Structures are given as structure tokens and as C-alpha cells.
Amino acid sequence: MDVVILKDDAEVAAEAATIIRQLLRQKPDAVLGLASGNTPLATYRRLIQDCKQGLISFRDVTTFNLDEYIGLSAEDPQSYRHFMQRELFHHIDIDPGSTFLPECGVGEDPLAIGPAYEALIRSRGGIDLQILGIGQNGHIGFNEPASSLRSRTRVKTLTRDTVEANRKYFDDPLKQPRTAITMGIGSIMEARQVLLLATGASKAEAVRQAIEGPVAAMCPASMLQMHETVTVLLDREAASRLELHDYFEWVAEQKRLLLDSRADA
Ligand code: PGA
Question: Second label for 110, Cα 20 to 30 Å away, from 126, 141, 238, 247?
Fold first, then answer.
């Protein structure tokens, strides 16, 4: 794991946007795995800026989001489809027909959505880079603790804690869904590159478990220890409980020195 400790949310977003820009330069028709939630918002704002300034284009990009609630229509402001349109898709030059979420329309069988979503991802060549946030309980996507570490895209029931954490987004608690369709941990592990973002003290314990704890279903993000190409971007608060904190900073310094010496050569 490449663990990078940055000052704050703005630095995390700048670094994440740089990594995405580099990918799109190498592969303009990349397939991006996207996340909703508060954490990636600053990154999306940077990407919007970059796109408006002509530094990147999403014209040939395809996106697959991690998850979507069951029971909310695309027009519902609390749906992740609506969130993505509002926070990213409407402001960049992406083809709306190339943006996908595991949505379950009225009359559709929720159990059929997962396998169809995975087939669609495969048909587009798989995910090049998956952006992830992390829940306070260590979840990635809506893979709650005790999810199978090899799980596939499927229906999941949210924990009471997750429902509570997201309550602030719902005016009417009775309309807040308790179930969602989420990419599985096994599905996420197939992305060629993973970018995990975490900011704020409330994530510090989950980050510690994910990076330094055992690989365990009780912390779904810990499975990323088994992935070959993961970059974890943390602000100081999210990194504050890491035992290897100083080591990660030392590694970053050594990398900088190495890059500088190559630039000088
Ligand atoms: P957040 O959610 O980015 O809103 O903190 C992350 C998550 O629960 O996966």
C-alpha cells in the first residue's frame, strides 16, 4: 500500500485529481469507478475545474459507481444517481450514456441487478481506477462489516450505524432506505488501481484497522492489503492513529528525494 499523509482535505483532493489526470492522459478512454459521499466531493470539484480549463476531458471515459440505494428514483435528490449528476456529471464533458450506477428501477428484480452490472463492467474492459471512501466502521461501498471478502455486486442491508451516519441527508427518516445494491469486495478487488481517500478524525480508527489491522471481514477495507496497486490518501486527522505514521512520512520523503535525483540526472 502506498500511504500518503497530506495536510488537509484540499491537499488530498489535489493529489487525487493529479492521479486521475495522469491516468486519463495515458488512457483517455479509461473506465473509472466512482464513489458518492462527502469524501470525494473536493476531488470532484478539482476535476470539474481541470475539465473547464481544458486540462482533461471525460469525452471517452466510462464510469461505474460503487453503489445505489434501493427504492429511490434517479430524480430523488437523495439518490446517488442524482448526487453524481449534481456533483460531477453535469459539469464535465462526459457522455451521460457512459455513466452507470447499480440502479434498480421500479418493477426490476433487485437480485438481478448485480450480475448484470458486473457483466456490463466486464464488457467495458473492467475498471482501471476505483475511487473509494471508507465508512467509520471500515466499510467500502456498502460492504458492511462481516461482508464476504470475495463478495460480488449484490443487495446489502445497511447497518444501523450507517443509516444513522447518513440520516442528515434525509428530511424524512421514513424515506431513508435500509438496503442498497453495492459492488462487492471481490468486485472492487478486480479494479486495476485503487485510490482510497479518507479525511477527518472520525475516520482515524477505520483507517488504522484497514491499513495496520488484520485482513478481516469485520473491517472490509482491510482486504485492500491484498491488492497490488492501492494508494491511500489521508489528511493528518485521518492518519492520526497510525502506528507507522512516521514511517509513511519517511517513505514519502525518500520518494521525493528519488524523484528529484532522477529529475536532476
Ligand atoms: P463519507 O462516506 O465520504 O460521506 O464519509 C464514506 C463511506 O461511508 O463510505
Answer: 126
